[in-house]
Each structure stands twice: as structure tokens, then as C-alpha cells.
Write a structure and sequence with these properties.
By secondary structure, this protein is mostly helical. It has one domain. The chain is about 70% helix and about 0% strand. It contains 23 helices and two strands. Strands 1-2 form a two-stranded antiparallel sheet. Helix 6 runs antiparallel to helix 7. The radius of gyration is 23 Å and the shape is globular.
């Protein structure tokens, strides 16, 4: 039994400082020492183990269990979802469906403000939902360039627009990962998702207005105000409903899809008097496609939506729960010698492949292949190999970061930091989003940010008597604000638009918006803690 000592140095402040060394080290490795994420996480894991063993007296068996659990969860369910989501995108590209999707979006209007709403905002959010990990920034910025936008301008607009989708990217993993962290107070992903509706919809509703204002000023906002309202209202309203009643998985899939449909229908009956063009270059007319072709092109993604909705439904989850009809397909492997006072039970690995969200995506891939006349399973297998080759390192990095988070939790380091930070008292919620902003700026990932800092937010919340889900949601929202300027996002954007070497210029273009979002989130979170 681990006698959990969150104050081993008999000084709360000093114990908290020592406990925070792994996180500080990780951030320094990424920034000052310019280490790659994988090397930074390995280095931090070694130091975390050292501190856990020699300062917090963490038993070796619990440490081994924590690392094992971190790696296991990094692969299943997180890595599984990531690989399947990106594979689905690559398959839709391989079948030629994605080209038709692009044409169907570009053909709705020749006004480039409307095209920015369709491609830069809605399609960007949709790709964040089905793939994430830089895919929406890369694809949408290139699409905008193809229709006449300047390279850095396209990159900046896509980075800002991505702020509306980053919290629920790649099938909701940034929030969904909360269920894997065993947070203080048994905070669930659904609770975080539900309370996020108090903050994120305000930002998300405002971002389309901001995009048009940046592109064409207040005059542009006035000229296409009905279009902006259609997109903002549809996207924000549906995402609010999805996140509250369903959870994070489909929050970046159904809302952006239907916002595109709503704008496409509205555009048939209303177009601005003046057609706005960024430049005077010749308008490239997209290819015309039949309704049947367009419906087929979009089929991978509405098939995905149907499967994810089924997989996320309570009745389906109940089939695999204890005593459920298919509970025999779920295996729980307990690791001996890992009983500890944090969980009051053995560390257990839950092998649950059939009800995993990744399996829902896998079935979408299989049906997409079957529906294609020319694309074979052998072609898809090659793309799967390419996907794994591209993603194994990011997934391994996530595994190491999860291992660090588990050791910090089971070893009492998170508790020590929480107790130290709690000394800030009721002013902490004002600073809570800043922690998330720093986390994403340094790691480039809202998933990694929540893995590192959500346990701290939850622990501090319990110690100062405020809502744990609210502070975890604030951590997520603060992280989303940092996606606009994280080195990883900036690097992807400049590479996609062929402007490598101009990272600092792009950073200057997005920085003020990132800080503006952060200030709003900080003040609003503080107000919410007073109201709630």
C-alpha cells in the first residue's frame, strides 16, 4: 500500500515546487533546449520517476503499473482513434471523393468572404473533427490559396478559425481523454463537455465575424451579415446541443457539416450585391458534379457520423458494461502490487476493442472501400501503413506523456502541486486558463495539455471549493487559444503554404488574437466561478 504523502518535505510550497519539476522540465526541453517531443517526454519521464522514487517514496510496483497504464491508454483508445481517423481521410482522398468535396464547397459562391466561411471556418472545423493533428490547417490554407488568397493570409485565417474547433478535434479526444485520467472528484468527459457550453459557444459564435472583419473590415461584415449569422448560429447552436446531450465525440463533425449545408442552401436564395475578391486574378471555376456524385463523395463522413453516434449512445455502451449482453468481450487485467490510496484499487487495464470509438471509424473505412468501384483493400492497406508510419512517433509521445501524468497522479506529485497552487485561493480561476494556454503553446496539442494539467486543475478545484469540470474546461479553452500560436501549428501552416522561414511573421499576425481570446477566457472563467 502506498502511503500517499503529498508533502514529503514538510513544507507545502517546497513540496509543490519539487513536484512541478517534471512539467517545468518538459516545457524547457521543448523551448529552451529545442528538443523533439519524443526526447523531451522520455527525459521528463526519467526525471519524474527519480522524483517519485526518492522524494515521494513511490513504490516500484505502482510506478511500473502507472507507466504500463499510460502506454496502454496511449495506444488504446487514443492511438487507435488517431490512426483510424487519419486513415479514413487518406482513403477518401485515395478514392477521389475528397476532390469532389473540395469542388462542392468552392462552387457554392464566388464571393471569397463566403468561401472563407465555408472553407476556412466550417470545413476547417469538420476536418479538425475527423482528423485533427494539423490536417485542417494544411488542407484549408492550401484550398484558400488555390482560390486566390495570399499564402500567409490564408494560413493566419485558418489558424484563427481553428480556434472554434480545437477543443473537440479528432473525434473529441482532447476532452474525451478526461475519462482516462481518473481525475480528483471523478470528473468525466461528459461533465467537462457540458460545462464548456458556458464559454466555448461565445467564442465560436464570434470567430466567423472576426474572420470577415480581418478580411474585409466592418463593411464586409455588414454586406454578408446574413451569411455570417447562418454559419455562426448553426455551428454554435448545434455544437452546444451536441456537447451537452451527447458529449465531445461529434461536436466537430455534425455542427460544421450542417453549417455548410445551411450556408449552401441559403446562398441559393441570397447573394451579396457586391462580389468580393481578394485579388483581380482570373476566377478558377470548380468542376461541376452531379448531386449523386456529391452525396457519394461525402458518404465516408456521414457514415462515420452514424457509427460514432451509435457507439456513443448509452444503449450501445450498456451492452459492454458489467452485466451487459456483450460484457464478455471486455477484458480487465489488474496489475498486482499497484493498490494505492489515490484510487483505492489495483491499476487495471481495460481491453475494450469492440466498443472503442476507433472501431466505429474502422467500420466507416471498410464501408467506404466497399462502396468504391476502383479503390481496393490492397490500396487501403498501403495507406494504413503510411498512416502508421506518419503517426507512430506522435502516438508514442502521447504514451510517454500519459505515463508521466499517471506517475505524477499515483505518486502524489499532482496533489502536492494542487495544494501549493491552491494557496492562490479564489484568484486561481482567473489564472486557470493560462495554464492551458502555456501547455498547448509548448506541446502543440490540447490532448497533451489536458493530460498534463487537467489533474492539477481538478485537484486545485477541490481544494478551493470550486467546480472541477469548470476548471478542466477552462484548461481546454485556454489551450485552444494557444493553438493559434503554438510552434507546431505555425510550422504546419507555413510548410503547407510554402512559406517556410516566415514562422515569426505568421506568429506576429496571430499573436494578438490568441492573447485576446485568452484574456476573455480568463475573465469569463473567474466570473463563472463567482456565479456558479
Amino acid at each position: 500500500m502506498l502511503l500517499n504523502n503529498i508533502n514529503p518535505l514538510e513544507n507545502v510550497t517546497l513540496s509543490a515546487i519539487v513536484a512541478s519539476i517534471p512539467i517545468i522540465l518538459f516545457l524547457l526541453c521543448l523551448t529552451v533546449f529545442k528538443m523533439k517531443g519524443i526526447y523531451a517526454s522520455i527525459t521528463t519521464l526519467i526525471v519524474t520517476l527519480f522524483i517519485g522514487f526518492f522524494v515521494f517514496e513511490l513504490p516500484h510496483t505502482v510506478a511500473i503499473g502507472a507507466v504500463t497504464e499510460g502506454f496502454f491508454q496511449g495506444v488504446l483508445p487514443i492511438g487507435y482513434i488517431i490512426v483510424m481517423a487519419v486513415w479514413l481521410y487518406k482513403v477518401s482522398n485515395g478514392t477521389g471523393q475528397f476532390d469532389i468535396i473540395q469542388d462542392s464547397i468552392s462552387g457554392i459562391s464566388q464571393d471569397q468572404r463566403i468561401q472563407l466561411l465555408l472553407i476556412g471556418f466550417s470545413f476547417n472545423a469538420f476536418l479538425e473533427g475527423v482528423a485533427g493533428f494539423g490536417v485542417p490547417i494544411a488542407i484549408c490554407s492550401v484550398l484558400l490559396i488555390q482560390i486566390g488568397f495570399k499564402p500567409l493570409q490564408a494560413a493566419m485565417l485558418c489558424l484563427i478559425a481553428n480556434g472554434a474547433a480545437g477543443a473537440f478535434g479528432a473525434i473529441g479526444i482532447p476532452v474525451g481523454i478526461v475519462d482516462s485520467l481518473a481525475l480528483h472528484g471523478n470528473i468525466t468527459a461528459l461533465e467537462v463537455s457540458q460545462i464548456s457550453i458556458l464559454t466555448l459557444p461565445i467564442l465560436n459564435f464570434f470567430i466567423p465575424f472576426l474572420l470577415i472583419m480581418i478580411l474585409d473590415g466592418l463593411k464586409g461584415v455588414k454586406e454578408i451579415l446574413p451569411m455570417i449569422l447562418v454559419v455562426s448560429t448553426t455551428y454554435t447552436g448545434l455544437q452546444l446541443i451536441m456537447t451537452y446531450f451527447h458529449g465531445p465525440e461529434l461536436a466537430d463533425i455534425i455542427p460544421p457539416l450542417l453549417s455548410m449545408v445551411a450556408l449552401a442552401i441559403f446562398s441559393k436564395y441570397y447573394q451579396p450585391k457586391k462580389i468580393y475578391r481578394v485579388t483581380n486574378q482570373e476566377v478558377i471555376q470548380p468542376k461541376k458534379h452531379s448531386i449523386k456524385s456529391i452525396l457519394y463523395a461525402w458518404s465516408p463522413f456521414y457514415i462515420l457520423t452514424i457509427f460514432v453516434m451509435i457507439w456513443s449512445a448509452p444503449f450501445f455502451k450498456g451492452l459492454f458494461a458489467e452485466g451487459g449482453l456483450l460484457s464478455s468481450l471486455v477484458w480487465n487485467i489488474s496489475i498486482p502490487g499497484t493498490m494505492n490510496e489515490i484510487t483505492n484499487k489495483l491499476i487495471t487495464l481495460k481491453i475494450d476493442v469492440f466498443s472503442a470509438t476507433g472501431t466505429a471509424i474502422l467500420l466507416s473505412v471498410i464501408i467506404t472501400i466497399l462502396l468504391s468501384k476502383h479503390f481496393k483493400f490492397s490500396d487501403a492497406s498501403k495507406l494504413l501503413g503510411l498512416t502508421i508510419k506518419e503517426l507512430w512517433l506522435p502516438i508514442l509521445t502521447i504514451c510517454f506523456i500519459l505515463a508521466i501524468a499517471k506517475i505524477m497522479t499515483y505518486g502524489g506529485l499532482t496533489g502536492a502541486m494542487g495544494q501549493g497552487i491552491a494557496k492562490a485561493g479564489h484568484i486561481f480561476p482567473l489564472l486557470s486558463p493560462v495554464l492551458g494556454w502555456i501547455g498547448v503553446f509548448m506541446t502543440g496539442s490540447v490532448v497533451n495539455n489536458n493530460t498534463l494539467f487537467a489533474p492539477i486543475q481538478a485537484t486545485v478545484a477541490s481544494q478551493i471549493g470550486t467546480s472541477g469540470p469548470l476548471l478542466v474546461a477552462a484548461n481546454t479553452a485556454g489551450g485552444v487559444a494557444a493553438k493559434l500560436i503554438s510552434p507546431q501549428s505555425i510550422a504546419i501552416a507555413t510548410a503547407a503554404v510554402g512559406e517556410v522561414g516566415k514562422e515569426s511573421e505568421l506568429l506576429k499576425m496571430t499573436l494578438k488574437y490568441s492573447i485576446g481570446f485568452l484574456i476573455f477566457i480568463c475573465v469569463w472563467t473567474f466570473i463563472l466561478t463567482i456565479i456558479l
